[in-house]
Amino acid sequence: MSNSKIANPKLADAGRLRIEWAESRMPVLLRLREEGRKTQPLRGMKVAGCLHVTKETAVLIRTILAAGAEVSWSGCNPLPPRTTWPRPWLPRAHPSMPGTA
Question: Could you give the residue ranges of the DSSP H alpha helices within 40-78?
């Protein structure tokens, strides 16, 4: 059973692109994910976290899940999520991020 609350499911595809972009820049964490997927060092463990939620946080959570843990996460963003920014700001803020041009 999931307790997740998704504010706007229509943003899922854009979110996936941003996570993939972050993964492409986090090779060490991806290598740890592959090792964890094989050895399952966190199998049976429950991991909870409360951290500023970003695309990089999503990469970390996916890695913990791949290592076998059950994950429960809560965001504690001090500012509104980037999805609320006016569209014209995005290309200047992150010119190399897919979906922002």
Answer: 55-66
